[in-house]
Design brief:
It is built from 9 helices and 2 strands, in the order ααααααββααα. It is mainly α and about 230 residues long.
């Protein structure tokens, strides 16, 4: 069964997704942005749309459809290099992994009910959305102290950005969900306790991001983040 909200949710999701890709592509070309900057802007824009998904759809199974279809579409875009702002010659299929992890988390934990698992899903997605993006951007521009893990080059500045922005994203999301009683599972947990749990999760996710090769952090960070929150909350 599909409601009018579900129909509008689908329409707006695809308009937003393609509009984001086209606009960033055009702006990046005109302003001569580095490819990794435009890619991370798209990454943030895609991750933030999960909030709209939760708010727009009456039925969770229709809300899963946009990100599910972009598993396939992003793979096609990646192979064909359709959008240069998103997929360069040396880029990994991280956009495919990100769409897959979001889809899987929504399938497992979102049911449009007060007792669903949005307090696990959304903070984990926001950690990847903001933590990974800022780690990449700040690491590229300010990363002076380089190190290698499993053959991957990282920077202390990038890892610090991952930790800080993941903590803020997780904690801020939990506070928002608690304040507006969007999820009832952790209403009695105090804000400072939520901060402590956010720090623990972010610390582990920073390590996960550092050792994940070929864009697989887009898969592992959200899934492991949600799992850690499950045990902590």
């Amino acid at each position: 069964m599909m409601s009018s909200s579900d129909v509008w949710g689908l329409v707006l999701s695809y308009v937003y997704a393609f509009g984001l890709l086209i606009i960033v592509e055009q702006v990046a070309q005109k302003l001569n942005w580095p490819q990794f900057v435009s890619r991370k802007i798209i990454h943030i824009g895609a991750g933030m749309w999960t909030w709209a998904i939760v708010l727009l759809f009456d039925h969770w199974y229709w809300g899963v459809v946009p990100f599910a279809t972009f598993i396939v579409l992003n793979y096609i875009f990646y192979r064909q290099r359709t959008f240069s702002a998103m997929d360069g010659e040396k880029e990994s299929p991280g956009t495919v992994f990100f769409a897959f992890s979001i889809t899987l988390l929504f399938l497992l934990g979102w049911r449009n009910q007060p007792d669903d698992q949005l307090h696990l899903i959304l903070p984990a997605i926001m950690a990847m959305t903001w933590g990974d993006a800022m780690a990449s951007l700040l690491g590229k521009y300010f990363g002076k102290h380089r190190f290698q893990l499993r053959g991957l080059e990282r920077s202390l500045e990038g890892s610090a950005a991952m930790f800080i922005f993941s903590t803020l994203a997780i904690w801020g999301t939990l506070l928002f969900l608690q304040r507006f009683e969007i999820s009832s599972a952790f209403l009695q947990v105090k804000p400072l306790s939520l901060l402590g749990k956010s720090l623990i999760v972010s610390f582990i996710l920073t390590g996960v991001e550092a050792i994940s090769p070929f864009g697989t952090d887009n898969l592992f960070v959200p899934l492991i983040g949600a799992s850690l929150l499950f045990f902590l909350l």
